[in-house]
Structure formats: structure tokens, C-alpha cells
Recover the amino acids of this structure.
């Protein structure tokens, strides 16, 4: 147990980190709810370009923490990187709030968000780990609450920013509302930054070695200069699809090369665990292709083919804007997480808990059900518009599948990868997830709707055909996961025997 930090101080330190994480997720998911719509409806992008720009951005968001975590540990300090990242994120959302339809300005703003995320994301998580270092009984609970703060922030913002956009557009004309919504994201980060600065004394007992030393202005200048170059690089990747594809392919080969090298050069006692991690990581990559549909094809489906009016027994209950349907994911996650935790505990007490590989197989089968629900949405459509309840049901199954597959990805790295290469492999995992985010955009483009097609009756089968195929794709992933179970049992047994 980390006896150097009293329990009371641990609690206050964690509360500070959870609050700024809540506001950071408020900003990010508030932007995510609108950005594809903004590109299609305001910038006039084709669906295909909007999907790939957003997916390339998502890939960069996952890749950047691998660098930001190292900067926090070795260069500037974990706490300083968290604060600097929050400041840069606020600037990035602020740039999106500046009224403009210039793509270089928009992509540069997204590049600033990539850099801010890279500095913020890994270092907040690392601070949580440092607060409870050596106390396994508390760290699991802490990360559960940490994950809850993520979902609280994302739920509120995904419901709020579409409303702000629609309200301001209705009052002051189309255009301003988009930028006011992005401004709300920037203000959220500013509030989070103010919160952590006012409570900074609660973090005095945690941090990395550079946090204990005076700030080196030369190193800060180097990090900011590198960040500026990264912004330019990100803008180029987002502007030119060929560059984005090349980036993703190179990253994919690098990750596979890293695994091949580590498996070949590692000790015999470590190879079984690394091979098991590789198999499960590849399955996780396939899952995130499904995950990326939430902000691409499913988001555009909600825009064009979902009736936002919720009614029951002939009584109108409420109405949602298309962008607000993405909030169903964190809502379901918050509702299902306690149930799943209880089920894990009960199964474990009875000696019937599934292995991670088994949970992956079950998770993919549940994801398949979710996409089949979307696939049959046309059966409930009136004039090309399907019921909002279809979205609730589909997101429910999809979110449960996410908890079983996507939510266990980091647990795979922690369980099977040797501690001496843990940090390095975490970075490789995030790069792999970033690649799958881009591939998810490629898949979403199979449901790209031409600009001249606006009739919901015509767009509906374009989406339902893709969702049905994705359902069958998840069935194939389930079959592969089941087929890999015997091998996984052998590799896990060998790994545990040498642990």
C-alpha cells in the first residue's frame, strides 16, 4: 500500500483528478457529437470525406498518448503535462468556436486537440495510479469511479451541445450555433482547468520525478515546439486522405513488427503471454471498427432516418436531436456497469467466471444482436423514418458488448504482458486501437449517401444493408473468438505456470 499518502489525502487527490477528467470528457464528447454533422451540413463534405477525416482524427487521438505519457514521466512531469494538456485542449475547442469554413483552420484546431489530448489523457490516468500505488484493493475501485466520471461528462455534453447548436441557430441564424456549441466545449475545459488549479494543493504528494524539480523552460519550449510541428502534421494528415492511409498502414506494420520482435526475442516463459495478448489485441481492433460506427454511420443514420420523437402508448414523451442519440452509449454504460460488476463477482464466487477470451466471444455475439436490430429498422419505418426506440435497443446491446470487449482491452495488456515492457506495450495497444478507428471510417463509407439523395426512403436501405453486414461481421468475430478459445486456454495455462 502507498503508505506515504494518508487515506484522506488520497480521496481529495482522486476527487481533483476525477473532476478535471469529467470536464475534459465533456469537451471531447460534446465536440464528437457534432463534428461529423458540422463537416457534412456546414462545410459541405461528402459523407465519405467526413467519415475518413473524423476517423483519421480518432486514430491520432489514440496514438498521441503514447508520446504524451513519456513526456510526463521523463521530461516535464505528470502534473504539469495534465495542466498543459487541459490548456491546449481549451485552445483547440476555442479555435473551433471561431466562425470559419476554412478547412485548414478546422483541421489545425483538430490538430491542437490531438496534441492536448496526448499530453492530458495518459498523465491523468497515471496520476490516479500513483495516488493508490501498491494498494490493489483501492485502485480497481478508483478506476471504476474514474470511468464513471468519463461517462457523466460525455452524457451531459452529448445532450447539451446539440441543443445549444439548434437553439442558437434558431435564434440567430444557421452557422453561429455550431461555433457556440464548440465554445461550450472550450468553456468546459476552462472550468476543469480552474478547478484543478484551485485544488492543486491536493496533488502535492503525487507526480513523477520531473514534477519535483523546478520547471525547465528550455524543455517546455522544446515540447511546445514539437507540439506545434505535430499540429501541422495532423492538419496535413486530415487534409489529404492518401497521407492518412499511408500513416495508418505504416503504424499497423510498426505495431505488428513490435509484437513479432518481442515474441521472438523474449524469454520462453514470456512468449505464451505475449502471443495471448496479440490474439486478444487483434480481436479488440476488430471491435473498435464496430465502435467507430457510433460517430459515423450510426450518427448519419440518426440524422436522416430516425424519428427523434419518443412516444409510448400514443403519448409523446420527449424529442431528441439526431446528435443526442450518441449519449445513449454512456447512459447504457453507466446503467450496465454495476450489473456486470455484480455478475462478475457472483460468477467468481461460484468458480464460474469466464476467461477474458470467453468474455470477448460473448461480447461480439451481443454486438451482433445490436447491429441486427439496426439492420431490421426498415421494418418499423414510416416514410423512411424508423422509431427512436430502435436506437435505444440497439445501443443497449452494443454498449453491453463494449463492456465485454472494449472495456477489457487494457486488462489484457496488464494480465499477459511482462511488467518490464508494460508501458511500451500499452502504447502499442493504443496505436492499434487508433488504426482500427480509421478502418471503422473506411467501413462506414460503405453507407456513404450521395449529396443529391435526400429522400429518407432511399437512404434507409443504404444504412440498414451496412448494419446487417456488420451484424454478420460480428457473428464471424464471435466464431473466430470461439475457435481461438482452446489455444487461449493453453497459452494462458503456460503463462500462469511461468508467472
Amino acid at each position: 500500500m502507498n503508505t506515504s499518502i494518508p487515506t484522506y489525502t488520497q480521496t481529495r487527490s482522486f476527487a481533483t483528478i476525477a473532476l478535471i477528467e469529467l470536464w475534459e470528457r465533456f469537451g471531447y464528447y460534446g465536440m464528437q457529437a457534432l463534428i461529423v454533422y458540422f463537416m457534412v451540413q456546414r462545410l459541405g463534405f461528402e459523407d465519405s470525406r467526413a467519415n475518413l477525416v473524423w476517423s483519421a482524427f480518432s486514430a491520432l487521438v489514440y496514438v498521441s498518448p503514447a508520446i504524451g505519457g513519456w513526456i510526463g514521466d521523463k521530461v516535464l512531469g505528470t502534473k504539469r503535462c495534465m495542466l498543459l494538456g487541459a490548456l491546449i485542449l481549451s485552445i483547440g475547442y476555442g479555435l473551433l468556436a471561431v466562425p470559419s469554413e476554412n478547412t485548414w483552420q478546422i483541421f489545425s484546431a483538430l490538430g491542437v486537440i490531438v496534441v492536448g489530448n496526448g499530453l492530458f489523457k495518459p498523465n491523468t490516468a497515471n496520476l490516479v495510479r500513483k495516488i493508490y500505488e501498491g494498494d490493489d484493493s483501492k485502485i480497481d475501485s478508483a478506476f471504476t469511479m474514474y470511468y464513471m466520471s468519463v461517462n457523466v461528462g460525455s452524457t451531459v455534453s452529448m445532450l447539451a451541445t446539440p441543443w445549444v447548436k439548434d437553439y442558437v441557430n434558431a435564434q440567430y441564424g444557421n452557422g453561429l450555433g455550431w461555433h457556440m456549441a464548440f465554445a461550450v466545449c472550450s468553456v468546459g475545459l476552462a472550468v476543469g482547468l480552474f478547478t484543478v488549479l484551485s485544488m492543486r494543493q491536493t496533488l502535492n504528494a503525487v507526480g513523477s520525478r520531473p514534477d519535483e524539480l523546478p520547471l525547465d523552460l528550455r524543455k517546455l519550449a522544446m515540447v511546445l515546439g514539437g507540439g506545434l510541428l505535430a499540429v501541422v502534421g495532423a492538419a496535413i494528415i486530415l487534409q489529404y486522405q492518401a497521407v492518412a492511409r499511408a500513416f495508418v498502414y505504416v503504424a499497423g506494420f510498426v505495431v505488428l513488427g513490435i509484437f513479432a520482435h518481442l515474441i521472438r526475442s523474449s524469454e520462453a516463459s514470456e512468449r505464451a503471454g505475449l502471443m495471448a495478448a496479440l490474439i486478444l489485441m487483434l480481436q479488440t481492433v476488430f471491435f473498435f471498427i464496430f465502435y467507430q460506427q457510433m460517430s459515423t454511420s450510426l450518427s448519419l443514420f440518426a440524422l436522416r432516418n430516425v424519428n427523434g420523437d419518443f412516444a409510448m402508448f400514443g403519448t409523446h414523451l420527449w424529442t431528441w436531436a439526431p446528435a443526442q442519440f450518441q449519449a445513449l452509449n454512456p447512459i447504457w454504460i453507466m446503467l450496465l456497469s454495476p450489473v456486470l460488476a455484480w455478475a462478475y463477482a457472483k460468477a467468481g464466487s461460484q468458480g464460474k467466471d469466464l476467461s477474458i477470451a470467453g468474455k470477448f466471444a460473448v461480447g461480439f455475439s451481443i454486438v451482433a444482436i445490436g447491429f441486427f436490430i439496426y439492420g431490421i429498422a426498415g421494418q418499423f419505418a414510416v416514410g423512411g423514418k424508423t422509431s427512436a426506440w430502435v436506437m435505444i435497443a440497439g445501443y443497449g446491446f452494443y454498449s453491453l458488448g463494449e463492456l465485454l470487449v472494449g472495456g477489457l482491452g487494457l486488462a489484457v495488456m496488464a494480465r499477459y504482458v511482462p511488467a518490464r515492457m508494460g508501458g511500451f506495450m500499452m502504447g502499442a495497444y493504443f496505436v492499434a486501437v487508433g488504426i482500427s478507428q480509421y478502418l471503422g471510417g473506411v467501413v462506414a463509407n460503405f453507407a456513404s449517401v450521395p449529396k443529391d439523395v435526400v429522400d429518407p426512403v432511399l437512404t434507409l436501405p443504404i444504412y440498414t444493408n451496412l448494419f446487417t453486414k456488420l451484424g454478420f461481421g460480428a457473428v464471424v468475430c464471435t466464431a473466430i473468438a470461439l475457435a481461438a478459445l482452446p489455444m487461449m486456454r493453453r497459452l494462458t495455462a503456460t503463462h500462469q505456470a511461468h508467472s
In short: DSSP finds 17 helices and two strands in the chain. Residues 16 and 196 are 6 Å apart (CA to CA). The radius of gyration is 22 Å. The mean pLDDT is 85.
